[in-house]
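This part of the workshop introduces the protein records we will be handling. To make this concrete, we reproduce a full record directly below:
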Amino acid sequence: MKTLFISLKIFLFFTILTGIIYPLIVTGIVQLAFPAKANGSLVIINNQIKGSELIGQKFDSLIYFTSRPSSVSYNPLPSGGSNLGLTSSKLKHSVDSLRCGFIGLNQLDSLSVVPAEMVFASASGLDPHISPQAAYLQVKRIVKARNLNPGQKSQLEKIINSSVQYPQYGLLGESCINVLSLNLELDRIFNTNSHLN
C-alpha cells in the first residue's frame, strides 16, 4: 500500500509539472519573446485578419497570384498530403489536370514548363509559398486582369523580385515567395480595394 501511495504522489507531481507548470512557462516565454509567431503569424491590416504568413490559402480572383494546390482545400485542421504514390494513375491525372489548368489560366504556350509546386500539393496541403518562376508565369494574366500599362507591368515585376525569400544562410531551402504577402503588396501598390478576406 505504501508503494502505491508513493507511485500516486510521483504520478501527481509529474502530471502537474509536465502537464501544467512546464507548458505555462514555455507559453509565457514564447508570448514575451515572439508574440506574433506564437499567435500564428497573422497578417492584420486595418484591424482585419487577412490570413497567416504560415498557412496557404486559395485565391480565386484573376487579379491575384494563385497558391500551390492543396489536397485538403486549404483547411488547416486535417492538414496533409494526398499520399498518392508516383505510380498512381490518380496522381498522374491530377498533375495533368492541374498543369493544363495552370497553362490555360495564365495563357501560356502548351509546351511551357510548369513548376512542380503548381501541380503537386505540399505534404501539409498548406504551403504558403511558390517559386519566383511560378510567380513570373502568372504576370501576363495579372497584367491583363488589372489592366496594367507597361510601366506598371515593370513595377509588378519589381514587386516579385523584392518579395523573393532566399535560402536560409544561403544554403537551406530554395528561393520562394509568400503568396499572401505578394497579393497584399499588389493591392497596396496598385491601390486596389482588397478582395482578400
Remarks:
- The chain has a mean pLDDT of 87.
- The chain has two domains: 1-39, 41-189.
- The longest strand covers residues 48-52.
